[in-house]
Amino acid sequence: MLNNIFKTLFFIFLISLNLNAKDVKAQEIVETMDVLKIKDTVKILDEELDNNIWITRYNNYLTYRKIEAELVKIKKDAKKYGRWKGSKYKELSYQLRNKIKIKENELSLISEYKDSPIGSMIKPKDLPKAPTVTNPFNIIEAYNYISKLNGSVDEYEQTNIELSDLLITVDLKIKEYQKLYEIDKKKSTKTELELLKKELKDFIMVVDIVSTTHEVYSRKIDQVILEVNDAIAEEIARTIKMIFIILILILLAYGVKVAIKRYVQEDDHHYTANKLINFLLIVIIIFIILFSYIENASYLVTFLGFASAGIAIALKDWFMSMFGWMAIMTSGAITVGDRIKVTRDGIEVVGDVLDISLFKIAIREDVTLTSYRQNRRSGRVFFIPNNYIFTDMIANYTFDGLRTVWDGIDVNITFDSNHKKAVELAKSIATAHAKGYTDLTRKRLQKLRKKYILRSTNPEPRVFAMMEPYGITISTWYYTNSHATLALRSTISMEILEAFKSADDITIAYPTQTLRVANHGPIEPESLLPGTTTTGLFDGPVAT
Q1: Confidence of residue 138 (pLDDT cuts 50, 70, 90)
Q2: CA-wise closest residue to 417 among 487, 460, 452, 465
Q3: In angstroms, what CA-CA distances link 206 with 141, 199, 269, 290?
């Protein structure tokens, strides 16, 4: 009976053991599956962290701390062995000192991680100096500056976002390691878990610092941007005001030009007035711009004073030309369209003024008596420096409204000609052909008498008879067009020539020489022997 009971109990025990073994085996299978799943998740997280710049910088930080701890230990050992005696310890102390230098060099390479787990990137970029907006060109610079500041804020904000995302990843990895440790209870897992918790703690500190710094940094940048925007708005307002003033000046100058064109008849006066108005307008605009954008005007005046003194010495001709231009413009001695004659170093140029610029006068050479007798060329454009009016002789053929000049024609007649008749003929011809210019000159001279003292204003042609070595010179003078002297000169010359040729008692003279030869006897051959004399054809009688 007892034996049967014992057998039954033993059988039940065996069955329970078998069931227990199956449960343990099933539990082990489940745990193995969980471990594999956890490791797969950790692997994915590790791959994500391996490509993270912040983890790389954190590893550099750990390396710095490791080297720093090693350095402390080496220094302690070097100090200890340095006090011991014996060559063995001296050698050991020497090696430790070398290691100290090596470790210090290693620390210097990664010194930025001394105070921060992410190195120098825990600090935002230093704010560059704000530009001083004093002219329109600085506005562009100021907007670039604002763009850089906004970029710095965005960059630092991106750092904060990346670190926050990193915290989430590290926290997930910690949770996975906690699950793993609950399953395997391995020491290596526990060690890795503790390192991850320290890493998370360090990054929480970093994120807290970055978040606070980002807030302060953003406020500082907002303040700077506001100040720069105020400076930009002030400069834009000042620029608009200055442009408005310049536009008013331009419109005023245009109005003055229109009024001059309406009420002044002469074209050359239009040109001169326009030149002066443009010059004054440019000078005023330049001074407005200078005094608008230069804070210390007295400094500018002083600088210009010293600079102009030096420049005046180095560029004397330029300055003299500018003063000459001012003298020409203000005095009206030469205007555009005038016919002038410039004499320089024996060279004479006669032509019409094309333009009067700040430094030179442009003259277009015309066919004149000067080009006919001397230059034998015409049509060229000469550029005469304005400073020549102070040093050289410049003749104006059309000054102050005059459009005529005296021109003279000389004709030689023989001593036995009727010079009175010749004078009458020449005067009648000149009077007939120059009548229009004579009347025009008379009107112009009457106007000039109101401004100038004129002793002689008789514009009638004048004829003079002068005795010369080869005959009598009949000099005929008359008024002619300043711009076309040769045409009337040619006409009058030919008329006088025809009149003199037609007169029986007038003979045109030219340089002649009368040769009288005495009637000698037969011409003997000349003796060319030494000591003899000869008598030539033109030899006079020999004195006895």
Answers
A1: confident
A2: 465
A3: 35, 11, 82, 53
